[in-house]
Amino acid sequence: MTNIREIAHFCADRRLFDHLLTNTSYMNPITYLLDIVKFALAGLIVFFAAWFFVKAYLDQRFNFRMIELKKESLKQTLPLRLQAYERTILFLERISPPNMLLRLHVPEMSAKEMQKIIIADIRAEYQHNISQQLYVSATTWMVVKKIKDDTVSIVNSAGGALPENASAADLSRSILVHLAGLESENPYDVALNIVKKDVQALF
Fold first, then answer.
1. What is the pTM of this model?
2. 3-state secondary structure string, the chain?
3. pLDDT tens-digit series, residues 94-151
């Protein structure tokens, strides 16, 4: 009887052994490695999917924060920039020959004296407003510099064409003739339009 039981146990153990031997999912190392790779790939897919959504959320939050910071910065800098553009427009108006001559004209003065006063006034006005370049666009400031230089050139050209005994009135007349003789559109009007377009771009 005992022998029969032993034989039965032996046969049962043998069947288990044969089952394990034939079941490659436990004994085949290649299949085992493939299972690891499959689990690893599944984990990576889950990780990258989660990272994609998290990154999209973080990017959205970052962009929102940047917009808020720009709004705060604009609230602080906009008044300064508007003031700078106002002063720039005022500068262009003040050195425009018709306004400048009306403001600085002295009938009893000679043309040479008047010329020196005009040039000194233009340069003083420019130096007084030079810090405004921090707040206006590069285009606007380039226009301001060119208008300043062109105005000095017009005054010097008009003064150089006059005789030594010419009066301030003669200089004023000569400057206006030089300005009217320009082939292009009035440069002061062009400059003002450029500055105004820059101001409109702020809003």
1. 0.64
2. CHHHHHHHHHHHHHHHHHHHHHCHHHHCHHHHHHHHHHHHHHHHHHHHHHHHHHHHHHHHHHHHHHHHHHHHHHHHHHHHHHHHHHHHHHHHHHHCHHHHHHHHCCCCCEHHHHHHHHHHHHHHHHHHHHHHHHCCCHHHHHHHHHHHHHHHHHHHHHHHCCCCCCEHHHHHHHHHHHHHCCCCCCHHHHHHHHHHHHHHCCC
3. 999 999 999 998 888 999 999 999 999 999 999 999 999 999 999 999 999 999 999 9
